[in-house]
Write a structure and sequence with these properties.
Blueprint (H helix, E strand, L loop, with lengths): L9 H12 L6 E5 L6 H13 L14 H7 L12 E4 L9 H10 L10 E5 L7 H12 L5 E7 L7 H5 L2 E4 L5 H10 L4 H9 L5 H7 L3 H4 L1 H10 L5 H11 L6 H20 L13 H33 L4 H12 L15
Parallel strand pairs: 1-4, 1-5, 2-3, 3-4
Helix pairs in contact: 1-2, 2-3, 4-5, 7-8, 12-15, 13-14, 14-15
Bound molecules: zinc ion.
């Protein structure tokens, strides 16, 4: 994929193109931002632009020459097929070792073989162990003019500050839901599934692609139907449902995500009944969502959203087991309105 074809990150892409056109590319860049938003794709496309002998009128690589083909066909975890694009990632272990950095530093003093500049991508840069990072440091301080570094990380704080300070920071934000949806459609996902997958991916196409076959998401409507069918205040039914939904227990986080989006939809509708655009479940407006909005009203919905996010936080930060979390949540969530105080489940 070329810079012009990549989803989102327009400011970053245009900035890189204009730096390339004016020959003011920084010798070391740190691409940081959430997983799965396209940092690697941008690095690959920028490496292609650096090596392409026939850039397009828009200032991007041509995408069709032999150089572009070899660089753009690179897949994460592989070596590139172009001698002037070096992609350093952890090999057998989870870390990038000093031996890998030493091999790299043995190549760098020599001029590139085909392109004008050599691109070295280190991904994820935070997997360099301290020795490896320190070995790289000297080169980042005084880089040869023919080599440019792109360090990629979703955890910039895990890098040595001395490494960070030598790089130009380039931040990648989350993608808009519409952009993730477009990416899913381009990957062959059907329209309805793409819309829902995007709404649950938190701005990451990578996460969306991982989750698209998730059984919980595929059963989202059924799960919500069962929740709404519980008679308000029927704690026994709520507990039984929690037990069903918590099996297997590793799916509890996705169940919470489905519930969160559904109650958020209900809240939006309770404030503005004509709202459709921002909903995750517009197809449920006249059925499940209508029932819940009529049953609860804005204030009770706000309270329920807070309960869900509290539960999510408690599960991750305090390691409260999924089954227990879901039982407490569903009893409170499916209680009649007006009992908010009595069913408070926040544990302090
Ligand atoms: Zn080209």
């Amino acid at each position: 994929m070329l810079l012009d074809d990549i989803l989102g990150h327009e400011r970053v892409r245009e900035g890189l193109k204009s730096a390339a056109a004016s020959d003011t590319v920084h010798h070391a860049m740190l691409f940081s931002g959430p997983e799965g938003v396209g940092k690697g794709a941008v690095a690959r496309a920028f490496a292609a632009l650096a090596a392409c002998p026939n850039p397009s009128a828009s200032g991007d690589a041509c995408g069709t020459c032999r150089s572009c083909e070899r660089i753009l066909s690179h897949r994460p975890g592989e070596e590139t097929r172009h001698p002037d694009v070096l992609w350093l990632s952890p090999q057998s272990s989870a870390v990038i070792k000093i031996a890998q950095v030493r091999d790299l530093l043995g190549i760098i003093p020599y001029p590139p073989l085909e392109a004008r500049v050599r691109t070295v991508v280190i991904e994820p840069a935070d997997t360099m162990n301290v020795e490896a990072a320190n070995a790289l440091l000297k080169t980042l301080e005084e880089p040869p003019s023919s080599t440019r570094f792109i360090l990629i990380t979703s955890r910039p704080d895990a890098l040595l500050s001395t490494i960070r300070s030598r790089c130009q920071a380039i931040h990648f934000g989350r993608l808009a839901d519409e952009e993730v949806e477009r990416g899913l459609r381009a990957a062959g996902v059907g329209p309805e599934q793409a819309r829902r997958g995007a709404a649950l991916a938190d701005g990451s196409l990578g996460v969306a692609l991982e989750r698209i076959d998730d059984p919980v998401l595929a059963r989202g409507d059924e799960i919500l139907g069962r929740c709404v069918a519980v008679r308000p205040g029927d704690a026994t039914a709520a507990l039984q449902l929690a037990a069903d939904l918590a099996d297997p227990k590793d799916q509890v986080p996705q169940v919470l995500e489905v519930l969160l989006r559904f109650y958020r939809d209900a809240l939006l509708l309770s404030v503005d009944a004509s709202e459709r655009v921002r909903l995750t479940h517009p197809h449920l407006v006249d059925t499940l969502l209508k029932t819940v909005v009529e049953r609860l009203g804005t204030e009770a919905l706000l309270y329920r959203l807070a309960l869900i996010t509290d539960t999510q936080r408690a599960m991750t930060s305090r390691n409260i087991p999924g089954v227990l979390s879901l039982e407490r949540l569903l009893v409170a969530l499916l209680a009649p309105p007006g009992r908010e105080g009595a069913t408070a489940i926040r544990d302090r």
